[in-house]
Write a structure and sequence with these properties.
The protein has six helices and 15 strands. With 279 residues, it is an alpha+beta fold.
Length: 279
């Protein structure tokens, strides 16, 4: 078993008689489909459908725990407090800092992360420090599985849930009732207008730093995110990437030639032309 401590993660508790209905009407995750041993991704969107805050969420007794990045904790708490109004809900910050992720045959404690489950990896999330300070191991696994992270792979308020594959990883519902930004993401889904997607990047040499432009034929197609050696994640226009691949046009990240692959678990493929791009 590999167990890695993620020091930069923080926790919020949402409890009370109205906890589930309160969150169900705000966030992208369908809580009615959230099992007691599951951890699913979720987001609170802007009215324009972009990700304002992202998190993992799981049940804790009669309430919920939201695990988010340390830099988002205060802002997310304030935003949820603003929406609370007269709901019978209590919001609080957990004093414990950090989360341990574990995977491998012997991993047994924690909630199972649905994002990695899609990629065939049983990864458990557990509050507190129960593993080593070896975050690079988790980063490598995250890249291998095509699991994007805000801050590292996309900027908040700049990406739609479809951009980061939330329509496939269990974090975005099209069947539950309305929530903030729901009309926009539902329209993207039904019209098939999603063009930006997370891809797994493999470089012929070590990849440059995050934020480097990805280009094909001298035209930008995306931006590099997380990097570990020759491998990384990026969000790219898959229609433009598909055209480049069909034409055998080199894809460059800085001066490094690279290949792109969509995570197999997404079921997506690069369209050979922009006219054939679908969500």
């Amino acid at each position: 078993m590999t167990a890695v401590f993620l020091e930069g993660r923080r926790l919020l508790h949402v409890i009370g008689a109205d906890a589930e209905s309160f969150l169900q009407n705000l966030i992208t995750t369908d809580l009615s489909a959230l099992g007691t041993d599951d951890a699913k991704p979720g987001a609170l969107l802007t009215p324009q459908g972009k990700i304002l805050f992202d998190f993992m969420i799981w049940r804790d007794g009669s309430g919920f725990v939201l695990e988010t990045d340390a830099e988002q904790q205060e802002g997310l708490l304030k935003r949820l407090t603003m929406y609370r109004l007269r709901a019978a809900v209590e919001l609080s910050v957990d004093e414990v800092e950090g989360v341990t992720v574990s995977w491998g045959d012997d991993a047994s404690e924690g909630r199972e992360d649905s994002r990695f489950a899609k990629a065939g990896i049983r990864l458990l999330r557990r509050v507190g420090q129960h593993g080593a300070d070896a975050e690079a191991l988790y980063e490598a696994l995250r890249i291998e599985c095509g699991v994007a992270l805000s801050g590292a792979d996309f900027a908040l308020s700049d990406a739609f849930p479809h951009d980061v594959l939330m329509d496939f990883n269990g974090g975005l519902s099209f069947r539950k009732g309305c929530y903030v930004g729901q009309e926009v993401v539902s329209r993207m889904q039904h019209r098939g207008t999603a063009r930006r997607r997370v891809v797994i990047v493999s470089g012929e040499n070590a990849l440059p730093v995050a934020g480097t432009e990805i280009s094909a034929g001298g035209k930008p197609i995306g931006t590099l995110g997380s990097v570990v050696g020759n491998h990384g994640l990026a969000i790219v226009r898959i229609d433009r990437a598909g055209e480049a691949m069909a034409a055998e046009t080199p894809i460059l990240i800085g001066d490094v030639k690279a290949s792109l692959a969509l995570p197999a678990w997404s079921g997506l493929a690069f369209p050979p032309s922009a006219d054939e791009a679908t969500a």
